[in-house]
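Model it.
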Amino acid sequence: MDYRELAQLNHIPPPYRIFVGQTLRFSNKKYTSIRGEQPNSSVKAPKSVAAAGRNQSATQSKLTTANKAVARNNQTGYVRKQTVKENATSAENSVSSSKVRWSWPVRGPLLAGFSNAEHGNKGLDIGGKAGTPIKAAAAGEVVYAGNALRGYGNLVIIRHNDDFLSAYAHNRKLLVKERDTVVSGQTIAEMGDTDATSVRLHFEIRFRGKSVDPKRYLK
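Modeled.
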């Protein structure tokens, strides 16, 4: 079976990434076993199985949103081969980036800065104590809140407009849920070390899906 056909059948967008435990359909036709036997059509799937299927679809949708928003440049799958370079300002200046009023999500020592290198850090890593309040860097809508994206721990993604997203990773506790509307400076999480080697906030800003240096925006 062609992988693109399989992806289309399961509503999996390019680059067709799948996950451990995910249920995949291989045909729209009536199921036939390897032996050619037809299953008993009078036996219905338990409600729990049907519910699991619906939950699987919802989970896949959330993972797709999260992957598209914050996948790291060196990550297989939703790989970004380019980041917005320091001198590439024409596109950013042509949109209403000034309408997004940015502020620091937390104050603390800078553990790692932004890098345009292929495998560089695509955001800022800010240190602090476990439980330190993490603030929304700008007003927007929560489009993801969970821990299904490997390497980010407890993660929040906020959509600010059609061009900008921000991401907040490694939190100990999330204080918002998907579709919540947040204002700038609102506490959205508590700092932690989930999927990290030490307590920190990994913070990213994405312009049209590409990494930009948060220090250029934060005030």
